[in-house]
Amino acid sequence: MKESVKNALRSAVVVIGALAFGHLTLQLAFKPYLEKTQQQMEALQNQEPQSSESSESNDEQFDDTHILMSDEGFTNLDDS
Predict the structure, then answer these.
(1) Residues 39/31, Cβ–Cβ less than 8 Å
(2) Cα separations (Å) of 27 from 14, 30, 33?
(3) Which of 19, 29, 40, 58 is 20 to 30 Å from the Cα of 67, by its Cα?
(4) Range of the domain at 31
(5) CA distance readout (Å), 71 to 4, 34, 58, 74, 75
(6) Phi, psi at residue 69, to the nearest 5°?
(7) What residue ranges are annotated as transmembrane (predicted)?
(8) pTM above 0.90?
(9) pLDDT band, residue 73 (cuts 50/70/90)
(10) What is the domain count for the chain?
């Protein structure tokens, strides 16, 4: 009986260690992308709110805009 409890505890420790290692691996692998996304979200939130009239005109403007996402951020293809 004691042997089965010992094996169960060992298995639990191995599973918890594997989950922790996997979590750290994902954090390190996606850190640059997560930081860029967070900076872009903060920049969008810090923009001044616009009136309802200007937001309607912006909606029409974005319908015809072609945007490319790259490692450096967003690039408007119409400006090039």
Answers:
(1) no
(2) 20, 6, 10
(3) 29
(4) 2-76
(5) 51, 12, 25, 8, 10
(6) -95, 125
(7) 12-30
(8) no
(9) low
(10) 1
CB atoms within 10 A of CB 26: 11
Structure tokens at 44: 């969008």
Residue type, 67: I
Query: What pLDDT does 1 receive?
Result: 74
Tokens encoding 67: 């945007």
User: What is the rounded CA–CA span in Å between residue 18 and residue 40?
Assistant: 32
3-state secondary structure of 70: strand
Q: Encode pLDDT of 49-61 as tens digits.
A: 665 555 555 555 5
Contacts of 62 (CB under 8 A, 6+ apart): none
Give the integer Cα–Cα distance in Å for 50 and 58: 10
Question: Which tokens in the block code for residue 63?
Answer: 């319908």
